[in-house]
Amino acid sequence: MTDTVINMQALCRFYEMGDQQVRALDNINLTFKRNEYVAVMGPSGSGKSTLMNIIGCLDTPSSGRYEFNGKNVAELDDDELARIRNREIGFVFQTFNLLPRLNCIRNVELPLIYAGINAEERSERAWEALKKVGLGDRMTHKPSELSGGQIQRVAIARALINNPSLILADEPTGNLDTATSMGIMEIFSELSRTGNTIILITHEKDIARHARRIVRLRDGKIESDTAK
Fold first, then answer.
1. 85 neighbors 57 (Cβ within 8 angstroms)
2. What is the DSSP letter of 85?
3. Where in the chain does DSSP place strands (E)?
4. What does pTM read for this prediction?
5. Beta bridge partners of 23
6. How many angstroms separate the CA atoms of 83 and 37, rounded?
7. Which residue from 32, 4, 57 is spatially nearest to 200, judged by alpha carbons?
8. If we measure between CA atoms, which residue out of 190, 38, 6, 168 comes closest to residue 92?
9. What confidence tens digit (pLDDT) does each residue in 172-226 have?
10. What does the pLDDT read at residue 19?
11. Above pLDDT 90, what percent of the chain?
């Protein structure tokens, strides 16, 4: 398996708005390797969200090349893209995206249901994932019975469940207070130390400083790319 998870070459994403063309991403060249912990920063309108959507195979570039684990994403069909999103990318969102009627373990199991894993293995793996984020004793609680920080921990456990090639986190502390945010960032740091590849989308410097590399975007271009 290649050491490079993501390779972007001359990648552009343009949108047509009326008679104008908006360059959301303009000639992006980026490589992310296995076990990297990267924060992508930039002001509103810098292209962060567009880049995240392309990385997550939720959108496609207008031009250029995007390879995920050595595969040219432009050549993949819808089923292959869905498989990558379900099995190879663990998503963590600002809004958590848990199902309110399901308890923690059932929420965490969801990607395994889509992957066709049997019930016994699903429960075992979901419990292990919840233990990793410190919620082994909250398996049967529903989201309404948890704090904001605990809900985000469940979302992180769900992102881990398929042992993905990449954890993609979009403003994961955006709805949390400062103390709770630091607890969530410590989980990401621990996941990085144990070998997970993490890309964190954020506009907050205090959050980005936890990463080992920071990519800054401005007006759809890479303004800087620095490793600690």
1. yes
2. I
3. 4-17, 20-33, 37-41, 63-68, 71-72, 89-92, 166-170, 198-201, 213-218, 221-227
4. 0.91
5. 14
6. 23
7. 32
8. 168
9. 988 888 889 999 999 999 999 988 999 999 988 999 999 999 999 999 999 999 9
10. 86
11. 77
Tokens coding 141:
């609680």
Which structure tokens are listed for 132? 């990793």
CA distance linking residue 111 with residue 23, whole number of Å: 34
Nearest to 41 by CA among 32, 52, 31, 55: 52
> What are the backbone dihedrals phi and psi of residue 159, each rounded to the nearest 5 degrees, phi first?
-65, -30
Nearest to 39 by CA among 193, 212, 220: 212
Count of helix runs (H) and strand runs (E) in the chain: 7, 10
Report the relative pairing of strands 4-17 and 166-170 from DSSP bridges.
unpaired
53-91 burial string, b = 16+ CB within 10 Å, else e?
A: bbbbbebebeebebbbbeeebeebeeeebeebbbbbbbb
Let me know: does 199 contact 169? Beta carbons within 8 Å: yes
